[in-house]
Structures are given as structure tokens and as C-alpha cells.
Amino acid sequence: MRKLLFFLCALISLSAFAEDIVIGKRHEIESKVLNESREYWVSLPTSYKAKGYKKYPVLYFTDANLNSFFHAFSGIAKQMSSDASPEIPEMILVGIVSQNRGRDSSPTKSLIQWGGSVSKSQETTGGADNFLKFIQTELVPQIEQDYRTADYKILAGYSFTGLTVIHSLYQTPEFFNAYIAIDPSLWWDNQIMLKRYTKFSKKELNKRQLFVSTSERVPSLYPKENYVREFIHKLEASPIKGLTVHSKTFGTDQNHHTMPIMSFYLGLKNIFSGYMVDDAIRFRPAVELQEHFNIISEKLGVTLKPRESLVNFFGYNRLYDNQFPTDSQVAIDFFRLNTEYYPESSNAWDSLGEAYLFRKQYKLALDAYIKSRELSPENKNAEEKIKEIKEHLN
Fold first, then answer.
1. I need a surface site. Which of 92, 102, 187, 234 has the fewest CB within 10 A?
2. What confidence score (pLDDT) does residue 51 get?
């Protein structure tokens, strides 16, 4: 009987914690451009709901329903933007579900399919212009209406949808800030995108970035040439002003089907090169952290800030750390910087108040706690501290 009761209690305990792990949400939009309903999936950053005042860059990618890309890419982005040394900022990910991949991805109409043979099934190709118009005039405005988005957008695609990425870069290079093309199918229509590069290379862009990847493993059947590698050579030989190019050619240990995950990671790592902070920066003046993000913001052409929880961690680490020497003034500098970055954060002001109180700077602590309570009237801690400080001052 005792074992049965133990089992029932354990079962009840497990069911109490049996909540779904949600990584995203499905949506549909009626597209007038494409004359059809389109499905897209959205994955929000971990801090999105808790930080109602923060805006996030957005990464749009195709093939959300292919090979668990939505699950993998959203996980990679979350991991890279977490912990004490984030490599990228937190982002909103929008995965576009593929419905007519051949039509939407191809910049031109061609009856030659992969394999080199003619197929009537290719008669619907050549719809990339419309697909990009759908993304730019319908999907992006919908996302910007529904979510708190920063002014930084990335477009990513793989294989055939990598053509969409290159086509977008050629046609409307300023619409997205960065592009990730994973082994794009540049064999398409007798290498039409390679032929169009000469015209594109004459353009002048403004702080745009491209990451493109391929591998040395060339198919034995079709195509036998690595046109992506040729594209990389063109980018290197005739660089485009204002376009920073990153590329990766994997060895024969990778092939067309194994490289997407590594390419997505490297694409983000390269685009946000310089974003990552050494966690030892918490032992240095807070102004160095500020200067670090000023530099990366200038480089990318968008205002980027360190994660609020990270700056808060640095502050508390300098205030109370029992492993290394503490410095309450450095802690105050970090907390004050956080209120400059996130003036609408009740928690940031609460933490600043705590640091001032620690140093017995009562008037400054009172002002910080009052600000925290104004932003969050239900903040009981701030209310208690305000009462405590006023009694002390009186």
C-alpha cells in the first residue's frame, strides 16, 4: 500500500510539471501577391514576454518545414544568444513553410530540372520575384505589426531556396541587412545568377553582409561543377562596395545535405562577428562594455545592446561575488548602464537601488526605487525599500 501511495504521489507530481515545451507558433497569411494562403512559423526569444519594452532583430528563412530546420535553427539562435558570452543578439525567427518550392525559388523560367533533363513540371518556375514581393510587402509588414522588431533583418535559404537569397541580394540588396545562402543551387538555368554577377558587382551597398557556404564534395552525376565555389571566386575577385562577404567551403567530410546546421551557425557567427563579449569584461569598467557595443552597432548600422539580464549579472557579480574581489562602484556603473539601455525596466532600476543602498547612498537609492515602482506598481520589494529608506532619512 505504501508503495502504491508513493507511486500515485510521484505520478501526480510528474503531471503537475507536464507542461508542453513550445518553440514556436504557426500562423497563416492571405497573400494577394501569390493569390494563396501562406503558412509561417514564429519562434520568439526567451526574454520576449518578460521584456515588453525590448525590440529584436528578425531572421526570415525558407524551408521551415524541411528537415526540422525550424526546430534546429530556432535552437541554435537561442543557444548562441544565451549565457554569459552571447555570440549574437536575441532574435525573432520567422520560418516560411515551403508550398511550391520550385516556383517560389527560381528567378527565371526553365524546363531543365536537377539532373539535367527537361520536365514539363518546371513550367511553373520563375516565380522568385513574386515570392520576394510577398515577403517584402506582405509578410515583413505583418511581422512588424504583430511583434516588437528592431530595424535589422536577415534572409536565409538553403539549396534551391538559396537562389531566393541571392536573387534578393541582386534585386533589392538594401531590404535585408544580411543574407545567408547555404549551398545555393547556382546551376539553375545555365548558371543565370553567375552571369548576372557582373551587373550586380557595379552596385554600391551600405553595410550589407553575405554568408555563403558550399563543400568540396562535387556530385558525381549533376551538376559536376561547383558553381557556388565559382560564385565565391567572383565575390573575391570583384568585390562589391559596402558588402562584407563571408564564405565557408567545407571539405569532403561534408556534403550538400549535411552542411545546413553548421552553415547556419557559421553564418550567424560571421554576420555578428565582434558581438561576443568576454565574460571577464565584468572585472573591467562598465564603460568598456558600452564601447564594445557602440563599435559593433556602428559596424552593422543598427543599435545593438547587451542583453539586460547579462548586464544585471555583471552588476550583481561585482556586488556580491564570493569567488573574486568585489567592487560596489563598478557594480553601480553596470546597473546604471542597464537603466540607460533599458529605461523602461523596473528590474534595472530596482537593481540600481539595491547597489546604492549597499553603499549607503540613501537618496540615490530612494530615487531608483521610486522609479522602479513607477514602472511596476506591483513591485513589493521597491515599495518596502522606499518605506525603509524614508524611515532612515527621517
1. 234
2. 79
Query: What local confidence, expressed as pLDDT, does residue 178 receive?
Result: 98
- 2 pLDDT more than 90: no
Domains observed in the chain: 21-271 (3.40.50.1820), 279-393 (1.25.40.10)
Residue 317: name the closest of 282, 286, 285 by CA. 282
Residue 125 has pLDDT above 90, yes or no: no
Let me know how long the chain is: 394
**Total-model pTM:** 0.91
Cite the DSSP H helix spans in the chain.
Answer: 2-16, 69-80, 101-105, 128-134, 140-146, 162-171, 188-195, 197-200, 227-237, 260-271, 286-300, 308-320, 328-341, 346-358, 362-375, 380-393
Nearest Cα to 166, choosing from 195, 139, 143, 140? 195
d(CA 240, CA 363): 56
Q: How many CB atoms lie within 10 A of CB 370?
A: 17
Query: Percent of the chain having pLDDT more than 70?
Result: 91
